[in-house]
Predict the structure.
Amino acid sequence: MQPVLLVPGGTGQLGRELVALAPAGTHVRAPGRTELDITDGGAVSAAVAGFAAEARAAGRFPIVVNAAAYTAVDAAETDAEAAFAVNARGPGLLAAAGAAHGVPLLHVSTDAVFAGDASRPYEVDDPTGPASVYGRSKLAGERAVLESAATAWVVRTSWVYGAHGENFVRAMLRLAAGGAEPSVVDDQCAAPTWSADLAAGLLELAGRVARGTAPRQAVLHCTGGGGASRFALARAVFEELGADPRRVRPCATADFPRPAPRPAYSVLSRASWCAAGLSPPRHWRRALSAAVPVIASREGAG
């Protein structure tokens, strides 16, 4: 049976990639926040109920992929209520509606649920311990989903970037093009993930759910391969644009204090993803080589 996807947060960088990359036969509805506020219980229940009924009437398999999130990491430190509303209450409402109407849920989470003090990639069942309000809100969302009666998978990822929305790679591209010589932290490490690769992974998982061959794991990690510091990622962006990477200078996190603490090391192990027979995203450096021309093209156009 062909899936049909409801993607809350559909106008964000991941939602747009899901729409763009959906294979033939997979229909995607991608409402933005003004169309579907996931913190509104009545709206969520009605949206999922109507979506499920229409999908089944058309002989399709309904799946919700939650791409909605509060991602203003620093702002969350002083606006915890808003962060928890979107990142915790919203996923819980989607899971409850999914359980009520028999609609599976794929929920996107983050490396920030971990403390970030590991010396090896985090496995899915490693102890969590978020240091920021943002991380705590995302962990609460995971728990709301996993403790619900919904058929659900939590997919953690890290350092997502793409052609839409504000993100680190787009910022570095602008600095490279503008002749800047930025200082970038060299003591934060994770796995950069192109939004197109993450979307492809979620679409593959959704297809498996629709065919009844989805993995048993409730939590999966889907990131670019390998790991890099912010500094290494910034230099790679400059290289891809043909700018001198030596213009990027290393610095320490302590040199630029921010309201929210960042994990020092939050590379996620992809063992669970690979063990499930899902296609792992390409190595972060290969993905960046493919992504930069796409992102730079959009920057030039707008």
Q: What stands out?
A: The chain has nine helices and twelve strands. The chain has a mean pLDDT of 96. The domain at 3-165+193-225+266-282 is CATH 3.40.50.720 (Rossmann fold).
